[in-house]
Amino acid sequence: MESKSSIEQHAGKSIRCKAAICRNASEPLVIEEIEVDPPKAWEVRIKILCTSLCHSDITFWKMKSPIGFFPRILGHEAVGVVESVGENVEEVKEGDIVVPVFLSNCGECKDCKSSKSNCCSIFKNRTTKDMPRDGSSRFRSMINGEAIYHCLNVSSFSEYTVVDVTHVVKITDDLPVDKACLLSCGVSTGLGAAWKVADVEQGSTVAIFGLGAVGLAVAVGARERGASKIIGVDLNPQKFEIGKQFGVTDFVNPTTCGDKTVSEVIKEMTDGGADYCFECIGLASLMNDAFSSSREGWGKTIILGVEMHGSALAVNPYQIQRGRSITGSLFGGFKPKSDIPLIAKKYLDNELFILDDFITHEVSFQDINKAFQYLLEGESLRCIIWMDRRDT
């Protein structure tokens, strides 16, 4: 926890700290000393307590120029303590425990005030390389003074980061920080997709394409809503045993379907198609499979994965006319500032104990590249990266 004397020492000044820098696409991160500027108006400087690796970080890590910007600091699932705040920041103060999130939530625009959307219309969902208000970086290299780019509005792979106040959520002090870390992206995305976007009801059937952390969180949300059948679709046969503890009741491996398509198998399992299908990978082909697996008349397909290959989604309009629908989901339809505290309360009230099982690995900050290895090899759901822990 940041001490009062430390806060007073750093307030209004730059801080030197360590950060894991991505200097080239797909190369191991390099721990370097950087300088982090003090927060400007509407900004919060956070001392990161722990962070975790999300598959979206892998996606940005692999991006080559000119789409990818280098050097940059990745990371967007984290929890930390407020070190200092800029002018006009009133909702958090020094010493508060906060979760930084990639999705903006200003609370003032038409969309933030509406129950129909969680896409802030003032700040939108920009994934810029700099701070959202003035377009400049708060990070500089101590090697040559060059600016280091931000990523996903958080950049948590640094001992200190600066985040716009619209991307900060205050949480209760009694929530374990490693569990709080999970709520900043993947787990919330899956839970929200089941609860808010699909609004899964008692006795319904669900098919989940991709059993990573997001897909398993969908399973948890569907189970809590009383779904009668939760089908996991994944190429990794081990995911069925893993998925069972999160609520998956049935499993389909596309490589073992023989002459049948995945959608044909799911239709047989659900007597005509699943009521709700969730695509959690980010492939247009799987989005089509998910849509084809939904029930004619009312089947709903929710797309959570981000298609990064530029492939288009082609759907027969006649199938839409017959009652099926497709909708997208960003952060599970949750509004970060109001919904993350509600999930935290569920955990503290022992209504979401399964949250613990998403954490499969833990490493120290200096071993951050191990987290990438675990995820790339399919070994981990979430690897917690502790900023102050020193492994022996």
TrEMBL record:
<dbReference type="InterPro" id="IPR013154">
    <property type="entry name" value="ADH-like_N"/>
</dbReference>
<dbReference type="GO" id="GO:0046294">
    <property type="term" value="P:formaldehyde catabolic process"/>
</dbReference>
<dbReference type="InterPro" id="IPR036291">
    <property type="entry name" value="NAD(P)-bd_dom_sf"/>
</dbReference>
<keyword id="KW-0479">Metal-binding</keyword>
<keyword id="KW-0520">NAD</keyword>
<dbReference type="Pfam" id="PF00107">
    <property type="entry name" value="ADH_zinc_N"/>
</dbReference>
<comment type="subunit">
    <text>Homodimer.</text>
</comment>
<comment type="similarity">
    <text>Belongs to the zinc-containing alcohol dehydrogenase family. Class-III subfamily.</text>
</comment>
<feature type="domain" description="Alcohol dehydrogenase-like N-terminal">
    <location>
        <begin position="43"/>
        <end position="173"/>
    </location>
</feature>
<dbReference type="InterPro" id="IPR011032">
    <property type="entry name" value="GroES-like_sf"/>
</dbReference>
<dbReference type="InterPro" id="IPR002328">
    <property type="entry name" value="ADH_Zn_CS"/>
</dbReference>
<dbReference type="InterPro" id="IPR013149">
    <property type="entry name" value="ADH-like_C"/>
</dbReference>
<keyword id="KW-0560">Oxidoreductase</keyword>
<dbReference type="GO" id="GO:0004022">
    <property type="term" value="F:alcohol dehydrogenase (NAD+) activity"/>
</dbReference>
<feature type="domain" description="Alcohol dehydrogenase-like C-terminal">
    <location>
        <begin position="213"/>
        <end position="337"/>
    </location>
</feature>
<dbReference type="GO" id="GO:0051903">
    <property type="term" value="F:S-(hydroxymethyl)glutathione dehydrogenase [NAD(P)+] activity"/>
</dbReference>
<protein>
    <recommendedName>
        <fullName>alcohol dehydrogenase</fullName>
        <ecNumber>1.1.1.1</ecNumber>
    </recommendedName>
</protein>
<dbReference type="GO" id="GO:0008270">
    <property type="term" value="F:zinc ion binding"/>
</dbReference>
<keyword id="KW-0862">Zinc</keyword>
<dbReference type="GO" id="GO:0005829">
    <property type="term" value="C:cytosol"/>
</dbReference>
<dbReference type="Pfam" id="PF08240">
    <property type="entry name" value="ADH_N"/>
</dbReference>
